[in-house]
Amino acid sequence: MMRAPATDLPVRLDDASFAVGTVTIIDRMTLTFAPGAPTLVIGPNGAGKTTLLRLAMGLAAPTSGTVTFGGRERGPPLRRAFVFQRPVMLRRSVAANLRYALSAAGMPRRQHDGRIAELLALVGLTGIGDRPARRLSGGEQQRLALARALAREPEILFLDEPTASLDPAATKAVEDIVAQVAARGIKVVMSTHDLAKAKRLAGDIVLIHRGRVVETGPAEEFFAAPKTDAARRFIAGELLI
Amino acid sequence: MMQTRRTFFALATFALLAAPALAQDKSIVVASTTSTQDSGLFGHILPLFKQRTGIDVKVVSQGTGQALDTGRRGDADVVFVHARPQEERFVADGFGVKRNAVMYNDFVLIGPGSDPAGIRGSKDILAALKTIKDKGAVFISRGDKSGTHAAELNLWKLAGIDIAKDKGPWYREIGQGMGAALNTAAASDAYVLADRGTWLSFKNRGDLVIAVEGDNRLFNQYGIILVNPARHAHVKKDLGQAFIDWIISPEGQEAIADYRIGGEQLFFPNATVPGA
Amino acid sequence: MKCNQNGMETSSALELVLRGDPALLAIVRLSLAVSLSAVLFAALVGLPLGAALALTRFPGRGAAIVVLNALMGLPPVVVGLAVYLLLSRSGPLGELGLLFTPQAMVIAQAILIAPIVAALARQTLEDLWLEYRDELSAMGVGPARRIATLIWDGRFSLLTALLAGFGRAAAEVGAVIIVGGNIDGFTRVMTTAIALETSKGDLPLALGLGFVLIAIVVVVNALAWGARRAGERMAG
């Protein structure tokens, strides 16, 4: 018998579908997220980006097909983490939010303080650890959400349109952190409907539309020589309906 | 937070477990009647007993029937009630050790000042009850198996009235204590049988006055009984017996005789009278 | 009240309070101790139960919620009787010797209000759970910790559930008079003292004590409200 792998990678969708009632949101997708450069999931609104990320995180179970994490089909997230478009802060201080995540990830209590300081520094929130987390601005909350996700020491980090509701300055701050995270070797999977953002950060591109994968490939190839008509039209800024 | 909660829990658990043990320190539970409690007798005599012996007496005041039942279940060490036939059965059934006579007072028939039955001033309780029934004047019955209730039922029987069969809308059983019965009578211009002690200390009389008193058949004897330790091993027989011994001693009897409201004596000690 | 038992002039309840009548203060203290302890025990059972119901889905959950909501209306006298039979020397827990003690009163009141705490907590925490579910799942938080998190983060809203329980406990007379016995200086609380004064026909004193009881409940609520305001400002 093989030893259970202590890793969540690769995350693999195999012919996975997700339907709510008669509405199919993810339609028989087969995809793999393996270590490497950031993967940007792009597509028009309603294409199924959020649902794809939730399936890949294990927050939702496919209604048919399988999703596996490091070869296992179920189980709690070991080393994957998620940043939501609108993160929910616990009703506690900034530091206590991080402490909570560290403790949920099983880090011994005595290491918490040092790690909290590191994380706060990483996301530029040093000095406001005592503030109530829910009083932070949207941009600060999003950076705290990133720090909280990183507290889990993830191998793979999912970000669901993390800057969609932020102003340009806050967007840049978050993107800088994401780039830094990716540079440390953490696999980043981020969804966006914003092509400029995708160009700045990818990696690889996964274009989805109506719950199906339309085209995948390295970013330079995707933008320089799209293989499908839908990709060409999406890059050209036409509506995909 | 978890720290605080744990402390709370520990304290509460301690309080829950430790207090009864502490409370066992020289105290007994006496199941008694509302008449002894509401009349204020216990408030007068218990401090004297405590001073003499250091024993705390915890009085649970109920109707006589319920008080005897509390004793039967072993939830009291001593019962102090007023319904002789029931007391004697309690002892005969092995629930009590011995019945001791303590004191007596009397019942009085209370009624509205307007006296709708026209019985005020009579010395014949049986004739008065017959008149109440014949005129259909409103009568409040305790209906709670208390000593007073038992006495009332006995009086109806002596008057030749089968109250279970003859009662009409004028006869109202409220199933509550003496005070509640007096409150009800005051509010509905009704007649009611009460023990004199409760009547004297009762404050919400409204229009109520004594209608009938002084009939020998209104005699109300109190008795005290130690719950049988052979039946309930946890009964504090030494402390309970000490209370009984004191209350029938000259000192206890004098304390009872000393209790007055407005100069009027409420209870008449008779522990030494044979056959009481 | 001692002064009445001694047949002295009836004092108004207000005078008793202003004079700091020791018997009355002892009764007030016991009322608070009994009802607050009951709230504590009810919270230890009711909050986790309410939280568990808020965040789980199982067949029969709807029925469980209906039953729990219905139990909010438990008749105090029935609870009192059940606890009486349980704690009586002739009952299954008679060995403990708890009947006619403040502990018995705490038990009866805790049973009475645990469903109130649980049902109101369930309602409050269900909304919080909708908000937290994704984040906690993403952090791999297990069931026990989820319950603890909901209770802690919902603590200011849950205060309302605890206050509802306290109000009911402090106001009820049916259960405590049966299991406590209304023993002077030992198990007499505000409500049983009011019942006693009523039966003695001293209606003004009974009513006055009623106002004192209401004032106590108002003060407890005001303190809780203040604590909630301050806490919310700090915790966000």
Give an overview in words.
The complex is a heterotrimer of chains A (241), B (276) and C (236). In chain A, the strands form two sheets. Chain A has a six-stranded mixed sheet, sandwiched between helices. A three-stranded antiparallel sheet of chain A has the order 2-1-4. Chain A contains eight helices and nine strands. Chain A has one domain: Rossmann fold. In chain A, helix 2 runs parallel beside helix 4. Chain B has 276 residues and is α/β, with parallel strands linked by helices. Chain B folds into two domains: 127 residues, Periplasmic binding protein-like II (D-Maltodextrin-Binding Protein, domain 2, 3-Layer(aba) Sandwich), CATH 3.40.190.10; 113 residues, 3-Layer(aba) Sandwich (D-Maltodextrin-Binding Protein, domain 2). In chain B, strands 1, 2, 3, 4, 5, 6, 7, 8, 9 and 12 form a ten-stranded mixed sheet that branches. The longest helix of chain B is centred in the first third of the chain and has 22 residues. Chain B is globular and about 55 Å long. Chain C has a single domain, classed as MetI-like (MetI-like fold, Orthogonal Bundle), CATH 1.10.3720. Chain C is 78% helix and 0% strand. The N and C termini of chain C lie far apart (47 Å). The interface between B and C is large, with 44 and 38 residues.
Topology summary:
The complex is a heterotrimer of chains A (241), B (276) and C (236).
Chain A: E1 11-20, E2 23-33, E3 39-42, H1 49-57, E4 64-69, E5 80-83, H2 94-104, H3 112-122, H4 138-150, E6 156-160, H5 168-183, E7 187-192, H6 195-201, E8 204-209, E9 212-218, H7 219-224, H8 229-235
Parallel strand pairs in A: 3-7, 3-8, 5-6, 6-7
Antiparallel strand pairs in A: 1-2, 1-4, 8-9
Chain B: H1 2-23, E1 27-33, H2 34-38, H3 41-53, E2 56-62, H4 64-72, E3 78-81, H5 84-92, E4 96-112, H6 125-135, E5 139-141, H7 147-158, H8 163-166, E6 171-173, H9 178-188, E7 191-195, H10 196-201, E8 208-212, E9 219-227, H11 237-247, H12 250-258, E10 260-261, E11 264-265, E12 268-269
Parallel strand pairs in B: 1-2, 1-3, 5-6, 5-7
Antiparallel strand pairs in B: 3-9, 4-7, 4-8, 4-9, 4-12, 10-11
Chain C: H1 2-5, H2 13-19, H3 22-55, H4 61-71, H5 76-87, H6 102-138, H7 143-153, H8 155-171, H9 174-180, H10 190-199, H11 203-235
Helix pairs in contact in C: 3-6, 3-7, 3-8, 4-6, 5-6, 5-9, 6-7, 6-8, 6-9, 8-11, 10-11
β-strand percent of chain A reads: 15-25%
Structural class of chain A: alpha/beta
* Main sheet specs of chain B: 10 strands, mixed
> What is the largest interface, and how many residues per chain?
B-C, 44 and 38 residues
Give the beta-strand count of chain B: 12
CATH architecture group name of the largest domain in chain B: 3-Layer(aba) Sandwich
Q: What is the overall shape of chain A?
A: globular
What is the radius of gyration of chain A? 18 Å
- Extract low-pLDDT stretches of chain B: none
Task: Please indicate the percent range of residues of chain B in DSSP E strands (runs of 2 or more).
Answer: 15-25%
Largest sheet descriptor of chain A: 6 strands, mixed
Q: What count of structural domains of chain A?
A: 1
- Following the backbone from N to C, one meets helices and strands of chain A in this order, namely EEEHEEHHHEHEHEEHH
